[in-house]
Recover the amino acids of this structure.
C-alpha cells in the first residue's frame, strides 16, 4: 500500500480527533460517543465507495481505510499500555486508598458478577456452550466510565465519586482481561482444556508476576531518570518506554499479566517520581502523557469503530434477541452491585455512602468501548475458535457496545438532568455566592494596585472603582443574606473556604519550592481531605480529616513491625523523616490562615463564624505542635536539621529571584545569568537531600544513651540489660492509668509521653524516666501517662529499681530532680536508701 496514502489516512484521523472534541461539546454528548459515531460513519463510507458503481475515484482511499492494520494486538500492545499508564500517573493514590473497598467492588466483584450473569443468561437463551457464553460475559463486563467522569466533573459531583469511577476504569480492564484469558482456553480447538482449578491457580502468578515485573521496571527507570536530572527530554523518553517494556516483559518473558505490570509500573512512578525528579520535569512529563493518552484513546475508539460494519455483516434476527439478553443481564448485574452490595458495604462502614441518584447515573453510564471491541476482535482473529462462536462473539460484543454508546451515551445527560444532578444544592448555591464575593474582593485589591502602578487617570479610576464597589457590595450582601442557609451551614461554607485557601497556599509554596516536591502530593492530598470532610460532615468532618493528617497510618504501623520483628529499619526511618517534614510543612501553612479568617471569612460570614473557625484552627495547631513535639523529644536535633534545610531552600529561592530581576533590568547578560543559575541549581540539589535519620533501637546501645546508666561499668550494664524489658506503644496509647498500682519504672528509649495530673501536664522524651515517684512513695499513681509518639520503653520492676537506686548516685539525683519538678519533697523519697556509693547492679 502506498506510504503516502497511509500517511494521508492517519493524518486525516488526527483531523477527525481535533474536530470531535468541540463537536461533542456543542452537541453536549460524551466525547467517546462522537468518536465512535465518526468511526462508524468512516467505515460505512469506505465500504460504500468500494462497492458502489457511482465512482471509482475514492476506491484507493477506501481500500487504505479498510486495509489499516487493525488487529487486536495493536489495541492491546500499543494503545492499552498508554491509557493505563497515563491513568495511574494522574491518580491521587493516597485518596484512592481511602476508597479502595468500593473501587475493588466495582472493578473486580462487579466484573465477575457481570460475567456470570451474562454467561448464564446466554447459556439459557442460546445453544452456545457455557464456556463460550462466559467468554462473551467477560468481554462485555469491562466498562469505559470516562463519559460519566467527565460529566460528573462538569456537574461538580463529589470528588470521592469521581475517584471511585476512575479507580474502577483503571482496574476493571485487568479483571476482565484475566477472565477473558481464562475462558478463552476453554473454547479454543486443538488446545487441551484446562481444569478450572488449574486455570484459577494461574491467577496468583498472573497478578503477582505482573506486579513484580512492573514494580522492578519502574524502580530501574526511576533510578536511570534520576541520573539524568539535567536532561528533561531524556527522562520523558524513558517514561515513554517504561509501560511498553513492562507490558511485553510480563506477557512474553514472565507469563504474567501485562495489564497488571503497566498498572504497577505507573503506580510506582507516581509514588516515587515527584521526589526523585525536578518539579518542572515531573509536570512536563505528566503533560506529555496526557497528550499521548488523549491521542491513544481517540485512535482506539475510531479504529475500533471502523470494525463495527465488518463485525455486523452476518447479523441475524436471532442475534438481535441475544443482544437484548446481554443488555438486560449486564444492566441487572451492575444494578445488583450498585443497589445491593454498595449500600450493604456502606452500612458496614466499609465504603463511603454513594447517594441513590449517583448510583443510578453510574448504572446508566456504564458505557462499553474499545477494550470490549478489541477482545471481541481477538476472538474473531483466532483460527482455533469455532466459526460459529467467532461470529456470535463479534455480533453480540459489537451490538452491546453500540447500545451503550448510542442509547445510553446519548441519553446520559438527560438522565442526569432527570435525576436532578445538574442542579446545585442550597449549600452549593451559597458556596458559589461566597466564592464570587471572595474573588471580587481579591480582584478589587489587584485592580487598585494595577491602577496605581500604571498611574491612570484618577477620574477614570474613581468611576470604575465605584461601579466595581457596587457589584462587590451586592455580592457580599447576597453571600451574607442567604436566609435558607443555617448557621451550621455557614460554618461548613467557612471551613470549605478555609481548606480551599490552605490548598492555594500549598500550591504557592510548592511553586516557590518552600515545600519540597517529595511532600507536595501528600500535603495537597491532605488539603483535599479537609475540603471533602467539611463538605460531607461540616465541622466534625473537617476535624476528623485534621486528626487523620497528624495520625500515624497503617503504613507506619507496618514499618514498625518490620523494624521490631525483622530488623528492617529503613522503611520506618523514611516514614518518620517524612512525618517530620510533613508536620513542619503543615505548621508553615497554618501560620498563613489566620489572616484569611480575619479578613475574608469575617467579612462574609460574620464575627461568630470567624471566631469559631479561629478556634478550630487553634485546635489544629495544638494537635500539630503536640505531634511535632513528640517527634522532637523522640529524635532531638532532627527537626532543627530540617528547619535549617528549609532556610537554605528559601535563601536559594530568593537568590534565584534576584538574579532573574537583574537579568530583566539588563544588569547581567544571558551568559552570566546562565552560569549563576547553574550554580544555584547545583546548590539546590544539595539542599534538597534530606538529612539521614538514625532510628536503630538495640537494647544494649539504648542503655548507653541514658546518662543514668553511664556510671555503671561494662559488666554491670550488661547484667542490667538482661533484666530490662522492652515495651513498645503506639501514639495515643495509655501507658499508665490513673489510680493504678505502682510496680514498674519506665525509661524512655525512644519516643515521647505526656503526664497529666491535677490539671497539669508534663512532657518527657528520650533518656528520661517516669513511674518512679509513685513506686517510691508506695501509693497509687496520681498521673495518667499517654504516649504522644510511637515509643519504646525499657521497663524495670520495683525490686531491681530499688537495688539500682542504692548503687547509682546519678539515678538518685534524677529522682530528686523529678520530685522537685513535681513539687514533692525529695528527702522523704530517698531517706531509706543508704549512701551514694556506686556498686555493681545485680540482677
Amino acid at each position: 500500500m502506498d506510504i503516502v496514502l497511509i500517511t494521508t489516512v492517519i493524518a486525516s484521523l488526527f483531523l477527525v480527533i481535533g474536530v470531535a472534541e468541540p463537536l461533542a461539546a456543542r452537541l453536549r454528548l460524551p466525547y467517546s460517543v462522537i468518536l465512535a459515531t465518526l468511526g462508524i460513519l468512516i467505515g460505512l463510507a469506505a465500504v460504500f465507495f468500494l462497492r458502489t458503481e457511482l465512482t471509482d475515484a475514492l476506491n484507493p482511499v477506501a481500500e487504505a481505510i479498510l486495509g489499516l492494520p487493525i488487529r487486536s494486538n495493536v489495541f492491546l500492545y500499543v494503545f492499552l499500555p498508554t491509557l493505563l499508564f497515563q491513568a495511574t500517573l494522574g491518580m491521587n493514590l493516597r485518596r484512592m486508598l481511602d476508597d479502595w473497598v468500593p473501587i475493588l467492588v466495582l472493578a473486580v466483584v462487579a466484573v465477575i458478577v457481570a460475567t456470570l450473569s451474562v454467561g448464564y443468561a446466554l447459556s439459557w437463551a442460546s445453544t452456545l456452550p457455557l464456556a463460550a457464553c462466559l467468554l462473551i460475559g467477560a468481554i462485555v463486563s469491562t466498562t469505559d466510565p470516562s463519559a460519566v467522569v467527565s460529566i460528573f466533573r462538569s456537574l461538580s459531583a463529589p470528588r470521592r465519586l469521581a475517584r471511585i469511577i476512575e479507580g474502577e476504569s483503571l482496574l476493571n480492564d485487568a479483571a476482565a482481561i484475566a477472565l477473558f484469558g481464562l475462558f478463552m482456553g476453554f473454547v479454543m480447538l486443538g488446545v487441551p482444556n484446562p481444569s478450572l482449578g488449574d486455570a484459577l491457580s494461574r491467577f496468583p502468578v498472573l497478578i503477582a508476576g505482573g506486579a513484580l515485573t512492573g514494580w522492578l521496571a519502574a524502580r530501574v527507570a526511576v533510578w536511570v531518570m534520576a541520573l539524568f536530572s539535567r536532561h528533561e527530554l531524556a527522562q520523558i523518553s524513558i517514561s515513554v518506554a517504561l509501560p511498553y517494556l513492562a507490558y511485553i516483559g510480563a506477557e512474553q518473558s514472565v507469563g504474567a499479566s501485562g495489564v497488571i505490570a503497566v498498572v504497577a509500573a505507573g503506580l510506582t512512578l507516581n509514588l516515587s517520581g515527584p521526589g526523585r525528579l525536578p518539579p518542572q520535569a515531573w509536570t512536563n512529563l505528566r503533560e506529555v502523557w496526557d497528550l499521548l493518552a488523549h491521542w491513544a484513546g481517540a485512535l482506539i475508539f475510531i479504529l475500533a469503530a471502523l470494525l463495527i460494519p465488518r463485525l455486523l455483516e452476518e447479523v441475524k434476527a436471532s442475534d438481535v434477541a441475544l443482544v437484548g439478553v446481554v443488555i438486560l443481564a449486564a444492566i441487572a448485574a451492575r444494578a445488583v452491585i450498585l443497589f445491593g452490595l454498595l449500600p450493604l458495604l456502606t452500612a458496614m462502614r466499609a465504603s463511603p455512602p454513594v447517594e441513590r441518584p449517583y448510583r443510578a447515573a453510574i448504572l446508566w453510564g456504564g458505557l462499553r468501548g474499545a477494550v470490549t471491541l478489541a477482545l471481541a476482535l481477538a476472538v474473531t482473529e483466532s483460527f482455533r475458535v469455532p466459526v460459529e462462536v467467532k461470529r456470535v462473539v463479534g455480533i453480540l460484543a459489537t451490538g452491546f457496545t453500540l447500545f451503550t454508546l448510542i442509547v445510553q451515551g446519548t441519553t446520559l445527560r438527560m438522565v442526569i438532568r432527570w435525576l436532578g444532578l445538574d442542579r446545585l444544592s442550597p449549600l452549593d448555591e451559597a458556596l458559589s455566592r461566597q466564592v464570587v464575593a471572595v474573588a471580587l474582593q481579591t480582584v478589587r485589591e489587584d485592580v487598585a494596585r494595577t491602577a496605581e502602578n500604571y498611574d491612570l487617570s484618577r477620574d477614570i479610576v474613581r468611576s470604575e472603582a465605584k461601579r466595581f464597589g457596587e457589584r462587590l457590595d451586592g455580592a457580599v450582601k447576597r453571600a451574607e443574606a442567604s436566609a435558607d442557609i443555617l448557621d451550621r451551614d455557614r460554618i461548613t461554607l467557612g471551613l470549605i473556604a478555609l481548606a480551599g485557601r490552605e490548598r492555594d497556599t500549598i500550591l504557592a509554596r510548592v511553586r516557590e519550592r518552600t515545600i519540597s516536591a517529595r511532600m507536595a502530593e501528600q500535603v495537597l492530598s491532605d488539603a483535599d481531605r479537609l475540603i471533602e470532610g467539611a463538605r460531607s460532615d461540616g465541622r466534625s468532618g473537617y476535624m476528623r480529616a485534621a486528626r487523620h493528617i497528624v495520625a500515624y497510618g497503617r503504613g507506619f504501623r507496618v514499618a514498625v513491625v518490620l523494624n521490631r520483628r525483622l530488623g528492617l529499619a529503613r522503611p520506618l526511618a523514611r516514614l518518620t523523616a517524612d512525618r517530620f517534614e510533613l508536620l513542619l510543612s503543615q505548621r508553615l501553612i497554618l501560620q498563613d490562615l489566620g489572616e484569611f479568617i480575619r479578613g475574608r471569612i469575617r467579612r462574609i460570614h460574620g464575627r461568630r463564624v470567624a471566631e469559631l473557625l479561629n478556634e478550630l484552627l487553634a485546635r489544629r495547631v495544638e494537635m500539630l505542635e503536640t505531634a511535632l513535639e513528640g517527634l522532637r523529644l523522640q529524635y532531638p536535633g532532627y527537626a532543627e536539621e530540617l528547619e535549617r534545610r528549609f532556610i537554605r531552600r528559601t535563601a536559594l529561592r530568593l537568590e534565584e529571584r534576584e538574579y532573574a530581576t537583574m537579568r530583566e533590568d539588563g544588569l547581567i547578560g544571558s551568559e552570566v545569568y546562565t552560569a549563576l543559575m547553574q550554580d544555584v541549581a547545583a546548590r539546590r540539589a544539595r539542599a534538597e537531600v534530606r538529612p539521614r535519620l538514625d532510628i536503630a533501637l538495640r537494647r544494649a546501645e539504648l542503655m548507653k544513651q541514658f546518662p543514668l546508666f553511664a556510671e555503671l561499668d561494662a559488666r554491670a550494664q550488661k547484667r542490667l540489660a538482661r533484666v530490662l524489658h522492652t515495651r513498645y506503644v503506639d501514639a495515643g496509647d495509655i501507658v499508665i492509668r490513673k489510680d493504678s498500682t505502682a510496680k514498674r519504672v519506665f525509661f524512655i528509649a525512644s519516643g515521647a509521653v505526656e503526664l497529666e495530673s491535677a490539671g497539669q501536664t508534663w512532657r518527657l522524651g528520650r533518656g528520661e524516666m517516669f513511674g518512679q515517684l509513685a513506686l517510691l512513695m508506695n501509693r497509687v499513681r496520681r498521673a495518667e501517662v499517654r504516649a504522644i509518639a510511637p515509643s519504646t520503653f525499657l521497663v524495670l520492676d520495683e525490686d531491681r529499681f530499688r537495688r539500682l537506686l542504692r548503687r547509682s548516685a546519678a539515678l538518685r539525683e534524677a529522682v530528686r530532680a523529678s520530685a522537685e519538678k513535681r513539687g514533692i519533697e525529695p528527702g522523704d523519697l530517698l531517706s531509706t536508701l543508704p549512701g551514694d556509693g556506686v556498686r555493681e547492679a545485680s540482677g
Remarks:
- The chain is about 75% helix and 5% strand.
